[in-house]
């Protein structure tokens, strides 16, 4: 059992949980994740390790409540426990040791960017972060990222920072030159748009992929992605890959594989299920 020691609401549907997991806190690296299971029979959910405190033996999990299982997780309170947390899993981020890194986070992807920025700054790499959300209340991790370098905030409605998408701000910075590498994490359309900006400029771009993932060991095959015309499993070969080589069409298509099952699960409550599945 893993004790929840603190809880904070970061945006209308994003929650941060501090959870005791001392062995993971000691060895986790930027880019790695854990598989979480709330209790017996619950869904296995992959979550990025957004931060850790080895002295306290805790890790920070940032959870976007979009379905039944994630809503159940964020409903937990300090003092309650999560049954299983397996990790750290996946390859650590490939980090440059000098130069200027542009780190782009869209929505909850900003939580994934945080440990990357944290480690780059520790290596004395210059970091500029671009983060965004639909409106001010959807922007997360701004204070944490400002500790490590310049931060450009974008909101779709212009309620805070620069009005527009993170890709528009990225285009301006890339046009100015001097960017050695880009790390981009967020919704598939955002990562694809960033890659389309950097490819003609020849700026290396690392993206963190978020396909369906079950066991975290490569056995189930659910997280298969195509990179450079070859098949990889995001859980063991990634989750980060060369964005210029990723087949984003396939990634987007595979993310919808279980949409009907998710809709059915969301329709289930104490009174039972309102809708059923049309196929097994």
What does this structure look like?
The strands form 4 sheets. The protein has a 7-stranded antiparallel β-sheet with strand order 6-1-2-5-4-3-7, with helices on both faces. Helix 5 runs parallel beside helix 6 (188-198). The radius of gyration is 19 Å and the shape is globular. The protein has 2 domains: 2-89, Elongation Factor Tu (Ef-tu), domain 3 (Beta Barrel), CATH 2.40.30; 100-254, Nucleotide-binding domain of ferredoxin-NADP reductase (FNR) module (Rossmann fold), CATH 3.40.50. Mean pLDDT is 87; it is low at 261-266 and 270-280. The two termini are 33 Å apart. The protein is of the alpha/beta class and 280 residues long. It is 26% helix and 34% strand.
The biggest beta sheet is recorded as: 7 strands, antiparallel
Count every beta strand, where a strand is a DSSP E run of 2 or more residues. 18
Shape: globular
CATH architecture of the largest domain: 3-Layer(aba) Sandwich
Radius of gyration: 19 Å
Low-confidence stretches: 261-266, 270-280
Overview in brief:
The protein has about 280 residues and is an alpha/beta fold.
Quickly list its features.
280 residues, alpha/beta, Elongation Factor Tu (Ef-tu), domain 3, 2 domains, seven-stranded antiparallel β-sheet, 9 helices, globular, disordered C terminus
Any chance you could write out the topology, listing elements then pairs?
Blueprint: E1 2-11, E2 14-20, H1 22-27, E3 33-37, E4 44-53, E5 58-64, H2 68-74, E6 81-82, E7 84-89, E8 100-106, H3 109-122, E9 126-133, H4 142-146, E10 150-155, E11 162-163, H5 166-176, E12 181-185, H6 188-198, E13 204-208, E14 224-227, E15 230-233, H7 234-237, E16 240-242, H8 248-254, H9 259-266, E17 268-269, E18 272-273
């Amino acid at each position: 059992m893993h004790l929840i020691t603190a809880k904070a609401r970061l945006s209308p549907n994003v929650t941060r949980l501090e959870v005791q997991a001392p062995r993971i806190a000691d060895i986790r690296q930027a880019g790695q994740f854990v598989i979480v299971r709330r209790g017996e029979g619950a869904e296995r959910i992959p979550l990025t390790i957004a931060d850790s405190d080895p002295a306290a033996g805790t890790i920070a999990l940032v959870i976007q409540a979009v379905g039944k299982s994630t809503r159940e997780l964020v409903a937990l309170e300090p003092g309650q426990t999560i049954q299983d947390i397996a990790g750290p899993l996946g390859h650590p981020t490939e980090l440059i040791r000098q130069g200027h890194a542009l780190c782009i986070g869209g929505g909850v992807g900003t939580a994934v960017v945080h440990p990357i920025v944290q480690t780059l700054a520790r290596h004395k790499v210059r970091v500029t972060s671009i983060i965004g959300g639909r409106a001010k209340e959807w922007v997360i991790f701004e204070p944490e990222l400002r500790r490590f370098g310049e931060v450009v905030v974008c909101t779709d409605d212009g309620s805070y920072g620069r009005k527009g998408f993170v890709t528009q701000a990225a285009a301006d910075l890339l046009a100015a030159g001097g960017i050695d590498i880009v790390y981009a994490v967020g919704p598939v359309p955002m990562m694809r748009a960033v890659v389309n900006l950097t490819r003609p400029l020849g700026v290396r771009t690392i993206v963190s992929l978020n396909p369906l993932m079950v066991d975290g060991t490569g056995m189930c095959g659910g997280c298969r992605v195509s990179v450079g015309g070859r098949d990889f499993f995001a859980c063991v070969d990634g989750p980060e890959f060369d964005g210029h080589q990723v087949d984003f069409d396939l990634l987007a298509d595979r993310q919808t594989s279980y949409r009907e099952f998710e809709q059915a699960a969301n329709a289930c409550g104490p009174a039972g299920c309102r809708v059923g599945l049309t196929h097994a």
